[in-house]
Every structure is written in structure tokens, then in C-alpha cells.
Amino acid sequence: MNKVAEILKEKNFRFNKQFGQNFITDTNLLDAMVADSGITNDDVVVEIGAGAGTLTRAIAKVAKKVISFEIDRNLKEILDVTLNDLQNVQVIFKDIMKVSDKEIKDLTCGNYKVVANLPYYITTPIIMRFLECDFRPISLTIMVQKEVAERLASKAGSSDYGAITAAVDLYSTAKITRIVDKNNFYPVPKVDSSIIRLDIDDNKYSCDKNKVKQIIKAAFAMRRKTLVNNLMTLGFTRDKIEETLTNLGMDTRIRGEVLNVNDFILLAEKLL
User: Fold this and answer.
1) Which residues are CB-contacts of 91 (< 8 A; sequence separation ≥ 6)?
2) CB distance 246 to 267 below 8 Å
3) Element (H or E) spanning 29, and its range?
4) What is the DSSP letter of 96?
5) Contact 167, 161 (CB under 8 A)
6) Could you give the CA distance from residue 164 to residue 153 in angstroms, rounded to a whole number?
7) Could you count the other beta carbons within 10 Å of the beta carbon of residue 260?
8) Which backbone phi and psi does 127 adopt, to 5 degrees?
9) Whose CA is closest to 205, among 127, 124, 263?
């Protein structure tokens, strides 16, 4: 049994299924994830989910400062042991979804990067929380289920492509940096994971992102329906949508999953 597992057992820690807790214990993998994130000693890092502190420690070895948000207060006793010798780590027991942009700005005092080992149930909300906020990070490097990473990094027309893919692409460039075997976690989950890095670029697309997101959301409302039928949920007539598609050189029978972000931007400009 590794040291972290021993501490968890000694403290009689009980894993909370509600929070999807699976901790990374392999130090080589932790260091690799930090390397993939591109962190330097000039960076302030916001970590989502301190867990047992293993990833926190790996980040702290490289970063200027680590601000780690943890929702499970039962981990405090564990973290008091695993992080007690680190001077550049601040653990805040708070749900990141309830933390304001102002609080993050006050804590980081400027630019920051996000690193996290995310449970499946909260992956999309957390990603969009940081992509859509007024105080965006430089990048997000996150450990997620392998199938989720493939969806986030997929291309238009593929079976994995969906609304979340287009929304992520609207704000950032996604790249899967490595696949992680499930046996690297404690306790061992049912599926493998992947590390994916999202590099945020506010100038990637020149458009009204809120309008584009309306089109994206509608386009994927019902995957089996055509783009025309889905866009009609926004109040447009069939004739108006078909005319717009024709003028843009698009087939009126297409489905939303074949369109890339540039296509959605053109539709937003013409329809909204």
C-alpha cells in the first residue's frame, strides 16, 4: 500500500461517491501532468479538488503558488498531513461553482492557470465556468474520463462531436496530452482517463459569443433532427432558416454535428 493510501486508512477516511473521489498516487504521472500544463515558477495555479494532496504537491514543486479548492471538508485532516511542509499552498474548503470571479481575482492577483483531476459529474460545468467567466485563466489542464476528453477534442462530423466540443472550441484550443490507465488511481475507477489541455485565446474568433452559443445549443438540441428543425426552436421559420443555409452554401438537410465553429458564427451573424 502506498503512503497516501496508508494515511487515508490511518485517518479512517471514507470515500464519498457523491464527489466522485479517485486520487492519483503515481508520482511520475503527477509530474507528467504538471509538465503537460506548462507550469513555471512564475505561475499561480488554481487547483480544483485537492483530494489527498498528491497533485497539489506536484504542482507546488514547480509553481509560484497553488490555490486549491476542495469541497470535502473531511479531507482537512488528511491534507494537514500531506501538505504540512509546503509554504506556497493555500487550501480553501469551498465549492468552486460557488466561488465568484472577484474572489478568484483577489486570490490570484493576476493571471493564473487551472489544473484539476475532475470527476465525471462536474466536468462540463467546471470547464464552462472558467471559459465563460469574466476572469479567464491562461489554460486549463484537466484529468477527465477518456471518452470525455475525446469528445472535447473531437472534430466536426465525428461521432464524438457535440455542443460542448463547439463551445470549448469557441474559447480555446483543446489537445489531449496523454491517456491514463485506470490503475493509476486509488480507488481504481471503472474506466481509463486522459489529460487534456485547453489553451484559452480570447481572440481566436471575432464574434458575439453569446449569440453563437445560442445557435450551438439549438443545433444540438435533438441530435436526430436536422439543423433546420432544431433552429426552429429559436423562433425562426423554416423558410428563413433554409434561405439562410442556401445563401451560405450549406445543404438544407444537414445536421448540427457537421458544422464547425466558423459555420455557427456565420449562422449567428445572419439569424440573430
Assistant:
1) 50, 56, 68, 70, 76, 79, 83
2) no
3) helix 27-37
4) G
5) no
6) 10
7) 14
8) -60, -50
9) 263
Return the half-sphere exposure (C-beta side, CA atoms, 13 A cut-off) of residue 139.
Answer: 18
- Could you tell me which residues come within 8 angstroms of residue 164 by beta carbon, excluding any fewer than 6 positions away? 124, 127, 128, 151, 152
Q: What is the pLDDT of residues 192-235, one digit of tens each?
A: 999 999 999 999 999 999 999 999 999 999 988 999 999 999 99
Contacts of 1 (CB under 8 A, 6+ apart): 9
pTM (2 decimals)?
0.89
pLDDT digit string, tens, across residues 45-92: 999 999 889 999 999 999 999 999 998 898 998 899 889 999 999 999
Q: What is the DSSP secondary structure assignment for residue 233, as one 8-state letter?
A: G
Q: Is 34 left (phi over 0), alpha (psi -120 to 50) or beta?
A: alpha
CA 113, CA 43: separation in Å to the nearest integer? Answer: 7
